[in-house]
Structures are given as C-alpha cells and as structure tokens.
C-alpha cells in the first residue's frame, strides 16, 4: 500500500487527504497547528470562475468546481456551508464595462457561463443606482473553509488516515539516490513515506527547502472587513470589475478592489486587499479606509453600517501567480501542492484530484498535458532570484 | 488630524495619574482620549448626560466613588493643564486603532458624541503613547444566564454609578473575588435586598496569602468597610457556593445556588432555590488589550494565566514610545493604577527629554507598585475559577450569545473535531464572532478547550466603526 505524508492540514492538505484515502492510499497528515488554522482561516470562501481568464488556472478552477460539488454531496453541503450563490461583477464606469464585457467574452469561449446584465438593480436591489452594467456568473460558489478542511480531514480519518497535530515537519529523510522517503519532525521522530506532499500553503517555500526541492512561495497580505449582522441585503457575491485586473498583477504596491457579500449570519464581508509586504502583521488603516470607501461606492447603504472586525492573512503566491502542483524531479517522492494565492479554497478540490492522480500513477510529469503549466520544473533557475526579491 | 507630544488612551485612574505627572514635571503637551462620558474610568465613572437632569450628581454617589480626594486632586491638575492649553481631554472618543507612523504613533478614533448616525472619525498623532484602557469583567455561562435581569457585577455597578439606579429589588450576587462585596454593599445601601453573596472560594485560601495582606492594611480596611455595610443590611455572604442556574420565562425570577466541594465541584443535593429579580455574577476581569496586541507589544501571563502587557519598572513596553499602566498590566485596583500611571508619566517626561519627575516620587511609586502588585497576585491566587464551573451546563445552554452557539455545539467542536483553543472553536462554531467579538464568551471558550484563558485575542479593530466614517477618511486623504 502506498504511504503518503501530507505536510499541512489547510484546505489543500485536507482535500488531498480525502482524495488519496478514496484511492486506498495510507495517509498521515501533519501540521504544527490545528486543522485549517493557517491561511485557510484567514480568507473568504469564494470558489470562483469569474475572476480567471482562459488558461491553466481557469481549467483547474473548472475542474475544482465540479470536484467541490462532489465533495459537497459526500460530506453534506450544509455541513460545509457549500452554496451555489453566484457572483455579479459590476463595472463602475463605461470604460470598465467595455473591458468587463471583453473579459467575459474570452471566458465564455473557455466554457464559463457569463451572462450580461442590463439591469443590475434587478439582481441586486441595493446597488448604487449609477452602476452602468454587470456580468452575472451563476457558477461562482462559496464554502466555509475551516469547516470544509475539518470535515475533509475527518472523512479521511474515518477511512484510516492519521492526523498528527503539533508536529513540525523539520527535514526530509533522503535516500542515497536523492529520493525522499519520509520526513523528520522537529522532535526527531521519523515518519516514513513513499511520497511527501508539500501542502504547507504560505510556508510551502520553507517546507520545499527542507525537502530539498525549493519552490518560490511568497506572502501577499490581505485584509477583510466584517460588518455587524444585518437582514439580507446583498444576494450574490458582488465584485467591482477592477478585481479582474488586480488578481493577475505583480505590482508590489497596494491593490484594493472590493468584493462584497452577505453571509448566512447576516454579516457582510468586504474583501480584500493585496500587498506584498512580507509577513508584516500590522494593521493598515489606509487599506481599511480604502476598502470601506469602495464598498460604500457600490452599496451606499453600507455607510451607516458598523465595521465590527478586520482580519488579515497572507496568501501564498508564486512569482507567476500560478500554484505549483506536481512531482519535483530534483527530489523524487516529493509532490508540491501549494502557492494557490487568493484562490486556494476554490482550487483545493481540483488540486487534490491532480495530486491523487500523480500519486496513484494516473498522471505523470510527461503526461500532464494542460496541467504541465503548474509543474515545479518551471522554476528551474528562478528560485534564487525570487527569494532575493522577497 | 491633530498632533501632540503625548497621547494617553483611557482617562481612568491610570491615565489621569499619568497626565497629572506629565503636567507637573514637564512642558509636554498632552491629549487624553476616552470612550466614556467624562474622566474617571471604571473607578470614578461619571453619570451619562443622557441620564437627564434628575440623575444624581457625583457628590451624592460619593460612597460608590472611593478615594474622592485623589480623584479631585487629579482632576484639578487636569483642569489646570486645560486652562494652560497644554492638555486636551476628549471624551466619547473611542480609539479603534493605534498604529505606528514615522517615529511616533497615530490613534484613529470614532466620535461617539453625535449619536450613531453622526459618527465622525479623527486621527491624533504623538511621539509617545500610554495605553491605559483598563479591563472588562468576566462572565461564564450557566443555564439561564441569557435571561434579562442577569448581569455581570460590573454591569450592576455601572448602572449604580452611572445613574444611581439599582438593577433590581431582590438581587443575588455570585462569582469570585473582592469586587463582589462593594457591589453588594452599594446595592444594599440603595435599598435593594441582596439575598446573598455567593463567593465560590473559601476564605482559608487567604491564610496562605497572609504576607501580602499584612502589607496592605488599607485594603483590609476597605474590605472591612464593605463587610460592615453588609452586616448592617443583613446581607448573607456565603463562601464555597456558586449560582448554578437562573430561572424565569421573560426575565429572571429565581436562581439555584449549590455548594462546592473541596475540588470546586457543585455537590449534588446541595442546591437551593431563591426568588430574585436581578442577578450579578463576576469571575474577575480581563485586561482590555486590543490596542496593545495589535501594536505587537510583548505580553506576559499573570499568576492566573491571563495575558497582560509586560512592562519594565517604569511602565515602558517592549515598543519604544509605548507605555502601559493600570489594569492592562494586570488587574489590581485603582490605587495600583494610579501608582503605575504616575511612573509612566515620570518615564515619558524623562524619555522625551523634557523634564524630570522628582526621585522621591518615582521611588515611592515603585514601592507602591511592588506592594500592590503583590497584593493583586495574592487575590488572583485566592480566587480561581472553580474546577467544576461547567459541570452544570446543559447541552442547550448558550455559550456565545451574539451568535447563539450552544454548549453542545462547542463540545462537539472540541470532542469531535479536536478544537484545542478558543480560536479553533470560533472557526468551527462562530463562538465569539458576533457583536461582542468574544469579549463575553472568549474566556469560557478558553477554559473549555484548554483549561486556561489562552493567549489574548487579536482584534485589529477595537471598537465598531461606521463604514461611512472610514469612507470619508479615505476620501479626505485623497485631497
Ligand atoms: C484575505 C484573503 C482572502 C482570501 N480569499 C479567498 C477566497 O475567497 N477564495 C479562495 O479560494 N481563496 C482565498 N484566499 C486564499 C486562500 O485562503 C489560500 O490560498 C488557502 O487557504 C491556502 O490553503 P493551504 O491549505 O495551501 O494553506 P494553509 O491553510 O496555510 O495551510 C498550510 C498549513 O501548513 C502548516 N505548516 C506550514 N509549515 C509546516 C511545517 N513545517 N510543519 C507542519 N505544518 C506546517 C501550517 O500550519 C498550515 O496549517 C484568501 C486569502 C486571504 C489572505
Ligand atoms: C464592579 C467593580 C468594582 C470595583 N471596585 C473596586 C474597589 O472597591 N476598589 C478598587 O481599588 N478598585 C475597584 N475596581 C477596579 C477599578 O475600577 C480599577 O482598578 C481601575 O478603574 C483601573 O484603572 P485603569 O485606569 O487601569 O482603567 P479604567 O478605570 O477601566 O479606565 C480605562 C478607561 O479607558 C477607556 N478606554 C478603554 N478602551 C478605550 C479605547 N479603545 N478608546 C478610548 N478609551 C478607551 C475606558 O472608557 C475607561 O474610561 C472595581 C471595578 C469594577 C468593575
């Protein structure tokens, strides 16, 4: 029986554990902290196709969306608060609407359902009346990330997997031929494995170095605003169209373009900023004020609503803004599954599919096809430079 | 935006003492921001203007505002500073964030004076800042604690101090710690029948702390004063007892009190029921650390495991330019807060190179702090939360009132999903995600998961702020 050690019990590690145990793999998940307590607990639970242009990431998002629906049926949608809520992207200017329409056109060609909305107020009655137009993406969904991670892990444990909390993966156990045959914990304990999966999220860069297969994963800070609970006033996930431009950008400076959505408990989430400031945990008042201002522009009623809470997280990103998924030729036995940036929740279920295919032999680096763009060998020679930049 | 040399956050005993010291021994300018209606903090709480012309004037509440002489002296100093244009005291200003800017700090504030619809934001910058935000009282859930009429002892006391009104005619007081007594005494003096004070711990614990008590005769005198009042009003004080349930339909009508065994567990069969129309329960205090945690200053656990701000012998935190005094450095009463505030003032004038407080003042302050801190630690050790506090919780007992999370749901997160701390319980059940942001239920969540309060919670926003006020500030900064 194949034995896999998964480093990281975030949404990605938990999803991998669930998928691998489905195929009879003997799984041990290790995390130095509780399940889902890393970046998974610091974001929103958007499962989006709307924000991605054609390419490998969109393809993964589409695979992942289907995989999430299956996971929902398996675990119970209610238990993980999986909801097919749909998203509405609103343009704030006429020019913005034109580029939004062009973007949507490209997505449609890639199989995304993107519906032009002539009367945004019919979909979202409390929008600012001067919004010129919008595109409706009925495929966008949401999930509660920590619940989902906990339930995925529990499902894996039910099938015989082991979870080792409080365990720091310190180093690789390496054979004479350079292949990795397990990990060594900070305590000295050795866990043997046929494959080691690097699902350490924002710390995936550090773990990859410990495994002798460095990939560049850097932190990108984001803040999210949470309001007091209200009666339901926002029906979909509502994004301002500039979101589309921000996601793919590598500008180091602050980017905000807000995403407004109501939660089941009535609070409204306003996300999210993007900044490359390392692991700086301090509060940026400018970010909070800017997000508030953008939200109030889209939904004027929010001006009278209280902000209750702000939270922050560090998205794991690779320099080319694509996750790194697949076997690492420099350290046979190591499979990466990290660097999902602001889409790790959405992409987790699909990532788990790919990882389980790589483990069980259904997929190899040479047969990766459209997923080849996500393989770690794209970083050959790039590592040092990227690390210096960080 | 306004700029000052020194910014003091909190106008309680600690903040006022710091202000007075700075005014007396330097030429520094000072701004004091406080969320309350007037200076004084928890200890010298002012009646709300909303209480109207019939509210009692502070003088009539003298028995509730101890040590009026100190308060009067501090206020006089503050008034003088105001008259000289060196001090600005801004009440109803809630600081929602305190962040480093350049070589100083900026406090972002919401103005509560205009009412909810007229809230505006403002910013104050300073080179040095004192965090003197005090503490809030601790609640633990029990069946019926969410009925109207059930409050924290702090809530009962605040009602008395702010409006001079008692919360009920027949009141039961429970929990642990010396603050139960003044609250009971205050209620009794205002004509309420206090059916009993149920102190969970037993006085024998005090014997072990004889040294600290002996060094603080004044404190004993204070306690004796309350005891006298309680005896006069025939208020029974029962130790080793706990209120295990409140009963009623629309509001509280009765409580059940049980005896605790040596291990601190309610004894089956010891229960008795009492008719009441109000209940006050207090399990000590949690320091208000939101601003300090977000700034990232070092903390340390107190003798009961609660995180408090770590300071040196002149109240400096680990961050240059940031000072802390009063309950944020550990709960210990008003006299300790005054002594710490004085030391912080001395440190600030010295560190900014704009004066010097007399040696003797500093020496005396330090002696007081040592002595009073020892006393405070003794109190904490003698008044632990009993081990069996959760024994009588029922599956449907609400733990988080804002989000309506039941004890059963919290237990499931712990027992079935392995939640090992309050944060994980929050992530899995929403406990602490509501209006109070875990200020009410966070302590219970910590005790239920790991038997300890756990690390201080990070709250990047320390008070609710209307998005409109933030949006206006963003618009303003573009100009
Ligand atoms: C503000 C913000 C908003 C976001 N919004 C969304 C959204 O709406 N939709 C979406 O899809 N994504 C969103 N994201 C991104 C998403 O949260 C992340 O991509 C995702 O959580 C990454 O999951 P993960 O499992 O890879 O990492 P994590 O959840 O961080 O898990 C990694 C785990 O590895 C553990 N670990 C690290 N090193 C070690 C070691 N040496 N030994 C043992 N364990 C180790 C950590 O403790 C951690 O638990 C957002 C992120 C932020 C910050
Ligand atoms: C019920 C009760 C009974 C007590 N009885 C006694 C007693 O008998 N003897 C005794 O010695 N002590 C007693 N105390 C304790 C005493 O009140 C405190 O020790 C003392 O007030 C602590 O002073 P401080 O300056 O640290 O904080 P506080 O007096 O609490 O002052 C803190 C101030 O900071 C303000 N503040 C907090 N956060 C912010 C913010 N973000 N922005 C702006 N302002 C903010 C608050 O509004 C408050 O005015 C009692 C307390 C309570 C609650």
UniProtKB/TrEMBL annotation, chain A:
Residues 4-357 form the FAD dependent oxidoreductase domain. Keywords: Oxidoreductase. GO terms for molecular function: oxidoreductase activity. PANTHER family: FAD-DEPENDENT OXIDOREDUCTASE DOMAIN-CONTAINING PROTEIN 1 (PTHR13847:SF287), SARCOSINE DEHYDROGENASE-RELATED (PTHR13847). GO terms for cellular component: cytoplasm. InterPro entries: FAD-dep_OxRdtase, FAD/NAD-bd_sf. It comes from the Bacteria. This is FAD-dependent oxidoreductase. Transmembrane segments: none annotated. It holds the Pfam family DAO.
UniProtKB/TrEMBL annotation, chain B:
GO terms for molecular function: oxidoreductase activity. Keywords: Oxidoreductase. Residues 5-340 form the FAD/NAD(P)-binding domain. Residues 398-444 form the BFD-like [2Fe-2S]-binding domain. Signal peptide: none annotated. PANTHER family: ANAEROBIC GLYCEROL-3-PHOSPHATE DEHYDROGENASE SUBUNIT B (PTHR42949:SF3). This is Oxidase. It comes from Intrasporangium chromatireducens Q5-1.
